[in-house]
Every structure is written in C-alpha cells, then in structure tokens.
Amino acid sequence: MDDKLSLQQFLPYRCNSLAQRISVSLSRIYVRQFGITVPEWRALVALAEYGELQSKQIAAHTSMDKVRVSRAVAIMTEKGLLNRRPCDRDSRAAFLTLTEAGLELYRRIVPEALDWEERLLAPLSEQEQATLFGLLDKLDTRLAELSSD
C-alpha cells in the first residue's frame, strides 16, 4: 500500500496543532496579566463585538461547545464581567451583556492581543497576510459546503 499519511503534511493536523499552540501562547497573556481563560476571552470578544447574546450564540460565534461557554459565562458572571437578563420565552436561557468592568477588561486586553498577533505575523508581508486570510476564508467556505453534505 503506497498510501501513507504524514501528520506534518496533513492539513487538519497542521491547522489543529497550530491553533492549539497559538491558544496556549495567548493564554499566557490572558491568565497572567488579566486573570481570564481563553474561553472567557472568546466570550468577552463576542459580546464586545455583537452586543447582547445568548450562550448558544456565543458558542456559534466562537466555535466553542456549549459546556465551555456555560462555564465561561458562570465564571465571568461571578467576576462581575457580565449582566444576565432572563429570556421571557425560555426560562433556561438568558441574554448576556458586558458590564462596565467587562468592557474595561476588553479594552485593556485588546492592545495586548493585537500586539501579539502582529508579532506572530511579522515574518509575513502584507500581501502574504492577505493571501493567508483569503485562503482561510476559502477553506472555511469549503468546509461549510462539505459539512452540509
């Protein structure tokens, strides 16, 4: 059998490995400097970007499972970063927004995150960065097509 698989040449592995290493590296900033986890950061960004959301919407925007979102929301609520407004149609659901403390934390973290991203992308020219993001968009679109089959 000539069909061999090398993990280093297998796109799903490479993407997952890179994403995991990026997440670990970024989590050092979030945990050490700001005392939040990556799931909390993702929820924070989603709420800052989209405004009022339910947990299921945060899960959709961040590609996190519902359990991780639920844990992050519970911790963020305890820390005073989130407001919860009950949903009239579903007693199990709530609408979530950032408190002033949540918005302030977001404003403090964003420059650090963007600086880190800039340092990561530094070896790539602007054209290479544009190409990279264009290719990621194409793969994202194709994955959605394959997932709907």
Describe the protein's architecture and organization.
The protein has about 150 residues and is mainly alpha-helical. It has one domain: Orthogonal Bundle (Arc Repressor Mutant, subunit A). Helices cover about 70% and strands about 5% of the residues. It has a two-stranded antiparallel sheet. α1 crosses α5 (about 100-120) and α2 crosses α3.
Structural class: mainly alpha
CATH topology: Arc Repressor Mutant, subunit A
Task: Describe the global form.
Answer: globular
Give helix and strand order, one letter per element, not per position. HHHHEEHH
| Helical content (DSSP H or I, runs of 4+) | 55-70%
Percentage of residues in DSSP E strands: 5-15%
Q: Class in CATH?
A: Mainly Alpha
Give the oligomeric state of the chains in this entry, treating copies of one chain as homo and distinct chains as hetero: single chain
Instruction: List unreliable stretches of 5+ residues.
Output: none
Number of domains: 1
Would you count the extended β strands for me? Answer: 2
Give the strand order, joined by hyphens, for the main sheet: 1-2
GO molecular function: DNA-binding transcription factor activity
Protein name: MarR family transcriptional regulator
Pfam family, one: MarR_2
Domain HTH marR-type: 1-141
